[in-house]
Write a structure and sequence with these properties.
By secondary structure, this protein is α/β, with parallel strands linked by helices.
């Protein structure tokens, strides 16, 4: 192509764009795609990894391709418990996990999910985080540990089981001597109960139980527990516990990466988190209840309620652990904030909402 021909073509293209604009047609400019690499703290088969993908899809769809989040499973780049450091350093652009997994950085991080939360459920704890000062306190904590991250806490979890055992736990002394998996402040609580605690990531629990390195373990819910393979290594699950009565998920961004995004994309992320939080809670009701029924009907799993004596012991030991850790002023500040919020909202909840067991028994009879 001659230089003259090339100049003529550029002129025609420019003239065409100009005439289009003159006629009122906007110039079509294809937006550049920003790609972010995330990692979850969950195995690919876990429903929790599915939740991480659900969030990413919402963002990807809502931005129309301007932002693309890819989510890798636990271990793809770093181990599950290495997520905070990897996101903070920029090794990963973001991640999906739970705040309590960072317990080793500062014990107060476990207060977003580890313990009775003064009677709050997970949705109430989320309310405290968003409207009761929790978000600001979490930012203080991350600043204190030098984490260059922005945290979105979302996705309320139902009360987690006491765990999976070889035989039913009938009394507090049955816990003594057990090699048991849990995380966060629950490590301290179960240690006081006499268990030998090992804090393993989700993907390592079943192999450890299969090899006899664990006698018992808790993870989270009927779907995750089933998908991870708990019914293959134990047939007894003890329901209801205060060790993780109110927990949520966390979406982490490297702060510099998030700050570099245009306001429009940051606003979409803000709203995608809210949408993913609601959708996750609805999906959980459907999926967990199905897996709960199918484990009983198809896999021979027996579910038992944790005895009240053990629940009372959990509360007693949790209070002892909190008292000891409250020598840290920030830990004490978070506990005081949660307690004040819980005193108001739990009282309102108990006084306002009717007991559903009466209606269930009326329609379906007494089951379990």
């Amino acid at each position: 192509m001659t230089q003259q021909t090339g100049m003529r073509r550029r002129f025609i293209a420019t003239a065409g764009a100009a005439s289009g604009a003159a006629l009122g047609f906007p110039a079509i400019v294809k937006a550049q795609t920003t790609s972010l690499r995330f990692q979850s703290t969950w195995p690919a088969k876990d429903i929790f990894h599915e939740y991480a993908n659900d969030f990413a899809k919402k963002v990807n769809d809502m931005t129309g391709g301007e932002l693309k989040i890819e989510v890798l499973p636990a271990g793809a780049v770093v181990p599950a418990f290495g997520l905070l450091d990897a996101v903070s350093k920029g090794t990963l652009d973001g991640g999906h996990g739970v705040v309590v997994y960072h317990y080793g950085k500062n014990n107060a991080l476990a207060l977003w999910g580890s313990g009775p939360a003064f009677g709050m459920d997970a949705n109430m704890l989320l309310s405290w985080h968003k409207y009761g000062g929790g978000k600001e306190l979490l930012n203080k904590l991350y600043t204190a540990v030098g984490a260059n991250v922005y945290s979105y806490v979302y996705g309320p979890m139902p009360t987690q089981p006491l765990g999976w055992f070889k035989k039913p736990i009938a009394k507090a002394s049955d816990v003594k001597g057990l090699k048991y998996r849990t995380v966060g402040i629950s490590i301290d609580v179960f240690t006081k109960m006499g268990a030998a605690v090992n804090a393993l990531p989700g993907g390592e629990i079943i192999p450890a139980m299969d090899r006899g390195l664990l006698d018992a373990a808790e993870f989270n819910n009927a779907s995750s527990d089933r998908l991870l393979g708990f019914p293959d290594v134990a047939k007894v699950c003890m329901l209801q516990s205060f060790h993780q009565n109110a927990e949520q998920f966390e979406i982490l961004f490297n702060k510099a990466k998030l700050d570099a995004l245009p306001p429009k994309l940051k606003s979409i992320i803000d709203n995608a988190v809210e949408a993913a939080s609601a959708d996750m809670s609805w999906k959980a009701v459907d999926r967990y209840s199905k897996d709960y029924a199918e484990m009983q009907q198809k896999q021979g799993v027996k579910f038992y309620k944790t005895p009240d004596a053990i629940l009372q012991q959990q509360l007693k030991f949790y209070d002892e652990v909190v008292k000891a850790k409250s020598s840290d002023p920030l830990f004490a500040e978070i506990i005081a904030s949660q307690r004040a919020f819980a005193e108001r909202v739990v009282r309102w909840d108990m006084d306002t909402n009717v007991n559903r067991r009466m209606a269930y028994t009326h329609y379906f009879g007494k089951k379990g």
